[in-house]
Every structure is written in structure tokens, then in C-alpha cells.
Amino acid sequence: MRITISCAADYVLAKELHQFLSSHLITMELSMRNDELYVMASDMDIKDQVGRLLHSFLTYKKDEILALHNFDSVFVIGIAKDPEDIGLYRCSFCGFPFAVEEEMALHERTHVYASF
Questions:
Q1: Is the distance from CB of 88 to CB of 99 less than 8 angstroms?
Q2: Chain segment 20-62, per-residue pLDDT in tens
Q3: 83-114 maps to which CATH number?
Q4: CA dist., res. 33 & res. 35, Å (int)
Q5: Is the dihedral of CA 38, 39, 41, 47 positive or negative?
Q6: Is the N or the C terminus of the chain less surrounded, counting Cβ atoms within 10 Å?
Q7: Which residue spans within 1-116 are E strands per DSSP?
Q8: 36-40 β-sheet, strand order
């Protein structure tokens, strides 16, 4: 099984994480390309093991505001940002992010009409 770990274009973080994982992954193959790390192992519990190690890394990096997300066999680790911080608008009903304020307003109206 192959696990991908994306560091969200943070090459420095990827190198730090590679060093951290290299010292903890004994029975697994670890490789790095750009800002992504790849873990290969025949063990099917690899996802849980890698997840625990990534949480340990976040604890180790307690001075930074990092977030970890998991999508099937892909982990994404990077600086947590609210959608508003990067210029997105958020629906006040469900929190869904939008790039354009008018699209958000139209979406919010569907919530209002659905409540009738």
C-alpha cells in the first residue's frame, strides 16, 4: 500500500517531516519528491501508523499552527487558514467556502427558501 503525504507546497516542512519520519519508519519505505512524501509498505495498517506519526510530528512542531487532513490514502499537512484569510467567502448557514461573494449570496438564499 502507498500513502501520500502532501506538505502543501512547503518544501522546508517536507524536509523536516522526511527527517522525522526517517527516524521512526523502520519497516516502511520512505521517499520524497518536491513537497510530497511517499510511504510504501505491505502492512495494511500503514494508514493508522502513518497517521499516528503525523500527529506526533504536529506535537513535536508545537510552535507552528499546522493542520492535518486525511483523504483515503492521502494526508495533507500545512498551515491552517480560515477561508476568509485567503480571500474566500463562507456561507453563514453551512460554512461552505466560495470565491465570489455573489455566488455565496445565491447559495445562502437556497438555505432560506429550503426552510419554508
A1: yes
A2: 998 887 777 889 999 999 998 877 778 888 889 999 998 888 7
A3: 3.30.160
A4: 6
A5: negative
A6: C
A7: 2-6, 29-33, 36-40, 66-71, 74-79, 89-90, 97-98
A8: 29-33, 36-40, 2-6, 74-79, 66-71
Every domain of the chain with CATH number 3.30.160 lies at 83-114
CATH 3.30.1360.210-classified regions of the chain: 2-79
Contact 32/7 with Cβ under 8 angstroms? no
C-alpha cell at 78: 500545512
CATH topology of domain 2-79: Gyrase A; domain 2 (3.30.1360)
